[in-house]
Amino acid sequence: MDEREAAAKIHSTFDQVQLWHRTPLFVPNVGSQLRADDDEWPYMSISQLSKVGLDVAAEHLYACRVLVQAGELFPFVHRSLLRTALVGATQAVWLLDPDDGSERTRRHRVLMATMYKRHHQYLSELLTLNDLRGEPHDTNTEIVHDHVAARKGELEKLRAQYSEKSSWNDADAIKAAARACWTRSADVENLVQEALLEWQAGSGASHGLVWSALGQEDTKPVTGPDAQGLAVIAAGGSHLRIANAYMLAYHLTDCGWALLRKRGL
């Protein structure tokens, strides 16, 4: 694939990305698999958690679209956006792929446990900020903190009944989601490995690590090596640089939507 082909491939998705970005609330039909799944933990149901993941993916794909259409192609920003799109879409696929309802609800509990844990940590730090400033705790923050703590405790008790100890892991979930989406492909294991590599490269960009820009066609030396063997390197942006990560997030989002309709309609 060359630069022109990569640009055409990315641009061909823009209408669908816009539709996803503007999709309203999804409510599973009465009698559907998801309607029954939702009753297992209605406080943040599996259908809504899946839809949020797809919304996150669509929003970040749409942000990439806006930048691409404006002619702004960056060596780091797109990778960072696409990493988040990948993780959002992965959440939906990972939650919804199992045919067994008990496995879907187990995965839902795993992801919710991580969400409650991280949210509770954040709210606790907000209250710590009040303490450091010598201020009384913000009333609304304290209410939400206590509510999240209560839900976190309820979920921990429920998970204990099932002897559940597993936790959310981005890498494992991405591999499982990619395998679910391309399970019929003869090249599935290569595609799974590519998905993992794109997530790793996106993580490098998101954390400001320069290695994620190296080894790319549009990262080139500006000067020759000096006496110490060091040269100035410039990293540019291109459609070709982001095409694989973009299409990965796009296809996983499409797969997630297909599963949401399959389980919820």
Write down the Rg.
21 Å
Unreliable parts: none
Measured between the Cα atoms of the first and last residue, the distance is: 38 Å
Reading the helices and strands in chain order gives HHHHHHHHHEEH
Structural class assignment:
mainly alpha
**Beta-strand content bin:** under 5%
Mean of residue pLDDT? 96
What best-fitting shape do the alpha-carbon axes yield?
globular
Tally of distinct domains: 1
| DSSP E strands, number | 2
Helicity range:
55-70%
Strand order of the largest sheet: 1-2
Number of helices: 10
Q: Summarize the biggest pleated sheet.
A: 2 strands, antiparallel
Question: Can you give a write-up of this model?
Answer:
The protein has one domain (3-109, 168-264). It has a two-stranded antiparallel sheet with strand order 1-2. Helix content is 68%, strand content 2%. It contains ten helices and two strands; from the N terminus they run H-H-H-H-H-H-H-H-H-E-E-H. The protein has helices at 3-11, 14-21, 33-38, 46-69, 77-96, 101-132, 139-161, 170-181, 188-206, 239-264; strands at residues 219-221, 233-235. Helix 4 runs antiparallel to helix 5 (77-96), helix 5 packs across helix 8 and helix 6 packs antiparallel against helix 7. The longest helix has 32 residues, at 101-132. It is an all-alpha fold and 265 residues long.
Question: How are the elements arranged and paired?
Answer:
Elements: H1 3-11, H2 14-21, H3 33-38, H4 46-69, H5 77-96, H6 101-132, H7 139-161, H8 170-181, H9 188-206, E1 219-221, E2 233-235, H10 239-264
Antiparallel strand pairs: 1-2
Helix pairs in contact: 1-10, 2-4, 4-5, 4-10, 5-6, 5-8, 5-9, 5-10, 6-7, 8-9
